[in-house]
């Protein structure tokens, strides 16, 4: 307990994982009839437990910030959320996340004679018709607010990343967050119908996405807003494009890894560009 009181990061991770694994673990066990099947089949309960589990990083991030640093900790956290005045190009960059890159590379590859299967969902997703701009915008807003970005990013990038960057290089910090982020999602791979498959490919993509968010977060001097937007765009593309990275061609993999290498090279430039807790 003394260690928990001293270490913000360990405290945050323990309570975040316990809270999420409890919620999603119930759904996983219920979906496989180990627990009462009604816990999984009841749409309202399923949605509640899924969203509550997804919200743990942000909920625990806020609580632990207040516990260790009081109002100052909360101000640090929400100040980063309010950072929106930066070069408009960074907003555009946020739109080209890993899933967008994969789609673009796949299309180019197909035009050049390759064969990468990418299905574009132009019918409906979460009650929004994806064949119209208004429908896509509505889907994006829904995903940002309830699909993960807001529920997670106050924890991953708002709380965890600046504390890691106080100790490590941004590249290592981004990789650490990516690994933690991927394993935090692990229960979803055991929930039937969750849409999660291929953990190894998911781990690789999550690390790459984490590095890109880390890069953009530091470029915008600690904007949690840009992290939420990039996360939201990536999740929205996953619904619209409806393809699995572990099933696309090696050319697509090479393309997104190449882009990630460019990001890493830029992060190695001097002077070191990173945002730590006291800079927020």
Automatic annotation (TrEMBL):
Q: What domain of life?
A: Bacteria
User: GO MF terms on file?
Assistant: endopeptidase activity
Residues of the CAAX prenyl protease 2/Lysostaphin resistance protein A-like domain: 139-234
Which biological process annotations from GO are given for this protein? CAAX-box protein maturation
Checking PANTHER family in the record gives: PROTEASE, PROTEASE-RELATED
Q: What name is this protein filed under? A: CAAX prenyl protease 2/Lysostaphin resistance protein A-like domain-containing protein
- Species the sequence originates in: Clostridium felsineum
Lineage of the organism: Bacteria, Bacillati, Bacillota, Clostridia, Eubacteriales
